[in-house]
Design a protein that fits this description.
Distance between the termini: 78 Å
Number of strands: 10
Number of helices: 6
Shape: globular
Largest sheet: 5 strands, antiparallel
Order of helices and strands: HHHEEEEEHEEEEEHH
Radius of gyration: 24 Å
Strand order of the largest sheet: 6-7-8-9-10
Structural class: alpha+beta
């Protein structure tokens, strides 16, 4: 059935990134027997869930999913309850608690109160989500989802880390006035996916990094992984800002003049006159 999965993934690459969740659910409905492999292969926007035991929010993704249940990193319990769900060993659970505390500080510094969650040799995941909710229909909205999967191999007093980071970005800007006609929420269809004056920018980016760090004790893993994730997120943010947004801005400005064309023509004529005076 590899051909079926390849066809699904090929189709997903050609569908709008803003409708990833709907498209995945549609494909799962068509081929339910391939659901697990498809969900493992496609990165979807992170969902916020609430731990019933602690009341704290956590992020649900494929890395803390077992069947239809998701494990909370705060209480180590599944929702909906799952008796035979996979849980980390006592050693890994202790490390996970320390990681949750460390990345909770990271969340406060970089994500202004949004929700993080985290997962001898071991592997784990750190997921972070930031949403921008508009207060009016004409303010911009968007979301930032980052998934950092790491693998750790201890080598004596050193540890080798392999980090795979994926960022999913969605940004929508709107332009309008209160007098514009609003589209009812119950109306769906291609004609209502975008409104006049609305610009949607979305996509994903994946990068990998490998590095060796000194290992003093088990807590050193938290520091080392945290440094790698922080450096990777800074690099990916800069890449998005300078390359993707910058290139998009250049293309838009080349296609459409922002300044008055008559003013630009007069400036060019004045420039030619000044060059002529200098050459005399």
């Amino acid at each position: 059935m590899a051909d079926v999965i390849d066809s699904m993934l090929d189709l997903m690459r050609r569908l709008p990134p803003t409708r990833t969740e709907e498209n995945v659910q549609a494909l799962v409905g068509i081929c339910p027997e391939e659901a697990d492999e498809l969900l493992q292969s496609v990165d979807q926007p992170l969902q916020v869930m609430v731990d019933r035991s602690t009341g704290r929010e956590y992020l649900a993704c494929d890395y803390n999913r077992d069947g239809e249940s998701y494990r909370s990193p705060w209480s180590n319990e599944y929702d909906p309850p799952l008796d035979d769900g996979a849980v980390p060993s006592s050693k890994m659970r202790k490390l996970e608690i320390q990681a949750n505390e460390a990345f909770d500080t990271y969340r406060e510094m970089y994500y202004e109160g949004e929700d993080p969650s985290s997962g001898s040799n071991f592997a784990g995941v750190v997921v972070l989500k930031k949403t921008m909710t508009p207060t009016s229909p004409y303010e911009p909205s968007g979301s930032w989802d980052s998934i950092h999967v790491f693998e750790t191999v201890e080598r004596g007093r050193q540890a080798h880390y392999k980090l795979t980071s994926t960022v999913m970005l969605q940004l929508v800007t709107r332009k309008g006035t209160e007098n514009d006609v609003k589209v009812p929420a119950d109306k769906k269809g291609p004609e209502n996916w975008k409104r006049e004056g609305e610009v949607s920018l979305s996509g994903s980016m994946t990068r990998q990094a490998e590095q060796d760090w000194p290992l003093h004790d088990s807590a050193s893993h938290i520091t080392n992984i945290g440094k790698m994730i922080e450096e990777m997120e800074i690099k990916m943010r800069n890449l998005l800002q300078e390359v993707y947004f910058g290139k998009t801005r250049d293309i838009v400005y080349d296609l459409r003049s922002v300044d008055d064309l008559e003013k630009a023509r007069r400036q060019k004529e004045l420039q030619k006159e000044l060059v002529g005076f200098i050459k005399r």
